[in-house]
Amino acid sequence: MTMGLFVGEPAASPWPLADGAFLLRGFALPHEAALREDLGSVIEQAPLRHMVTPGGFRMSVAMSCCGALGWVSDQRGYRYDPIDPERGLPWPPMPASFVQFAREAAAQSGFDHFVPDACLINRYEPGARLSLHQDRDERDFSHPIVSVSLGLPAVFLFGGTRRTDKAQRVPLAHGDAVVWGGSARLRHHGVLPVKEGQHPFMGACRINLTFRKAG
Ligand code: MD6
Ligand code: FE
After folding, report:
1. Which of 2.60.120.590, 3.40.309.10, 1.20.1250.20, 3.40.50.280 would CATH assign to domain 8-34+95-212?
2. pTM of the model
3. CB distance 121 to ligand 1 below 6 Å
């Protein structure tokens, strides 16, 4: 019997995308029911909404947040804010299942003691996309980012530190996690337009959660 057949062994080892960036195929599957249930209660409290870019464009991705800080985009720019501007109230607290998942995924990728204070929730309906960007609104880039895909599949674009660097195309499926830190922390990345489809649990959408230590 090989090690991989023991109960509790992860499905596969982290797949390196670059120095400091890993794809963890199916890592969220054992957490899936809890993540889904807690996600439902977060977006009931702080509904998904289409934010506007500083340039005045409505984003095709609908967003919400939970945790001590939430990511906000409007005409004034991008920032983290403890208050949800739609409701004038703090963001919902981050569910324990989210914190636990993020911590385990980070540890699996060599980032111990990750304690996220912000979780961004992105909902992609078919056709929604995210153009190449860097995640650079966080205070300290020594912390990784943990991301999980739920629902419809998508193609993740993973580029370089310059926006014009050629991007790899990484197919992401329900339950896949990506962890991102170290020298990969400021790589450009994005998501190609999501294709039409139906997911048994999530319906006609893809949800991505990204966990950060923002403050
Ligand atoms: C998405 N993700 O997968 C968008 N950022 O829908 C991100 O923008 C992202 O997955 C930083 C690290 C991992 C990510
Ligand atoms: Fe990002």
Report:
1. 2.60.120.590
2. 0.93
3. no
